[in-house]
Design brief:
alpha/beta, nine-stranded mixed beta sheet, globular, binds zinc ion
Length: 509
């Protein structure tokens, strides 16, 4: 076939990779050349002509080219707590891991942890993260450190601050009655009311109204409806509509959260989703992380309103929360994205793991065989995350006009030999070992498995410097949680034994 002319403005050609194109065959993807002009994909052809002087080239022969993964639920605040916990149910985990438990952090720590989390994501082929960040107490210099780190490392970020105006203690079943009152001050949630500042107003002034930043897309992060008053949710949705922003929140991760809704929302049939519907908050802009304990009629409300979910199978299993009703969500037509959640509960920022678990848990979420799940897993890890971020026109696909956010996987590896189905081997076999080059916004940020933007050793050094203080505080917090353990156990046992109309946890007998 005659070579095709290189599109005008091309700065880089990715040559000869097998590309997962939106309408292509994902089992046997075609070998193509991809022309990049600046930050965008300019054209795709079987064979572009020889380079001109101004054009760079990346040899992708023997590689699978996939859209950069979109980690649609992530919190950079506890990157340093990876690998610290196991067999801790969600409600107790909050007390170990979440920022309101900790003394104020140093700017150096905030910078180091942000870089480290982004590094792990990039090295795993993730080009976009939704960072739902709790900065507690909020300080502008911490936000500046986060933004500086993201700018330096070159990842794309959909950034939201996590906020709430109801205290965590009020939102967890039985805690208030089980714990002696003198201990109540020790119990907090994912985000606590900010006492000194109107955080949302401050975010609007300093971020939404500020000049745009490259690769930063703003979002809103009401922590969870049970932690936000109707007035705060209404203000959130008004801002979201006015600035056309995506909104990220948590819903029904654990049995305790569904139970709390049953106990506290009789006027909404015990349903947080019905509460959100009554408040006009169900909307295509809204993304609900976890969605493990949704009831059937709640799934229908999400589907009707275009509200999306972000599943986090790694954390949901580790925190003993259960298995989301994946097949029911799919059958209803709910948008499903995927995330890796906190480092202390997932613990890996790795969308290969998330995709594989998604496909496996879809299999056990309905005993009757349904549609193949590997394509659905890849779409959840790419296109659906983009749509939820209101960036479906810009990222998540390999197509002309889309941002050049791409991950190249080296197929000279046993995972890929023999090549029977690219999408099945991507989801069920590849675990991240093959990620060789990663491009964000047309720039190669990982080349030959090494970050190009910041020296990786510098990041590890920054982390080591702040770890003594983090470890000291983590040990202090762990000792405090151990003192609370007898009451935590009583409340947890009541939570998991109170009657519910369905279950999401495996029960052998
Ligand atoms: Zn979360």
């Amino acid at each position: 076939m005659n070579p095709q002319p290189i599109p005008a403005g091309t700065t880089l050609i990715i040559r000869g990779g097998k590309a997962m194109l939106p309408d292509g065959d994902w089992h046997a993807p075609p070998r193509v050349d991809i022309a990049i002009a600046g930050t965008e994909i300019a054209g795709i052809a079987t064979n572009f002509a020889e380079m001109t002087g101004a054009t760079d080239e990346l040899d992708a022969r023997g590689h699978l080219v996939v859209p950069g993964f979109i980690n649609a639920h992530y919190h950079s605040h506890d990157v340093l707590a990876k690998g610290t916990l196991e067999e801790v149910p969600l409600e107790a985990w909050r007390l170990y891991a979440l920022p309101p438990q900790y003394p104020p952090r140093s700017v150096e720590e905030v910078h180091a942890r942000t870089l480290l989390g982004a590094l792990e994501c990039l090295r795993s082929g993730i080009t976009t993260i939704q960072d739902m960040l709790t900065l507690y107490p909020f300080e502008d210099r911490h936000l500046d450190a986060v933004m500086g780190a993201y700018e330096q490392i070159g990842i794309r970020v959909i950034f939201s601050l996590q906020y709430a105006d109801r205290k965590g203690l009020e939102t967890i079943p039985y805690w208030k009655e089980v714990f002696p009152p003198q201990m109540h001050a020790l119990l907090s949630g994912a985000a606590e009311p900010e006492r000194r500042l109107d955080l949302l107003g401050h975010f609007e002034q300093t971020c939404l109204r500020a000049p745009p930043r490259g690769r930063v897309h703003w979002a809103l992060g009401p922590s969870a409806p049970e932690r936000c008053s109707p007035a705060l949710m209404a203000r959130t949705m008004e801002l979201a509509r006015r600035y056309d922003l995506p909104v990220y929140s948590h819903i029904y991760e654990s049995r305790g959260m569904a139970l709390q809704a049953r106990l506290t929302l009789p006027e909404h049939d015990g349903s947080l989703i019905k509460r959100l519907a009554a408040e006009g908050a169900l909307d295509p802009r809204l993304n609900l992380a976890h969605s493990v304990w949704l009831a059937r009629d709640e799934i229908d409300l999400l589907a009707e309103s275009g509200t999306g979910v972000v599943l986090n199978p790694q954390g949901n299993l580790k925190m003993k929360c259960g298995i989301a009703p994946i097949r029911a969500l799919q059958d209803a037509g709910v948008r499903i994205a995927l995330g890796c959640d906190n480092c202390s509960c997932s613990d890996a920022q790795n969308m290969f793991m998330a995709m594989k678990l998604f496909a496996l848990l879809a299999a056990v979420s309905d005993p009757i065989p349904g549609p193949p799940q590997t394509g659905a897993a890849l779409r959840a890890a790419t296109e659906a995350g983009a749509q939820g971020a209101r960036l479906g026109h810009a990222i998540g696909k390999i197509a002309p006009g889309y941002k050049a956010d791409l991950t190249l996987i080296d197929m000279s590896d046993p995972s890929w030999s023999p090549l029977n189905s690219a999408v099945r081997q991507l989801v069920h076999i590849e675990a991240g070992r093959g990620v060789r080059h990663v491009m964000v916004d047309g720039k190669v940020v990982v080349r030959d498995r090494q970050l190009t933007t910041v020296k990786e050793d510098q990041i590890y050094d920054e982390v080591e410097k702040v770890m003594p203080e983090f470890r000291r505080d983590f040990d202090g917090i762990s000792a405090r949680v151990k003192r609370l353990q007898p009451w935590l156990d009583v409340a947890h046992k009541r939570m998991v034994t109170t009657e519910m109309e369905f279950d999401r946890v495996y029960s052998p007998f």
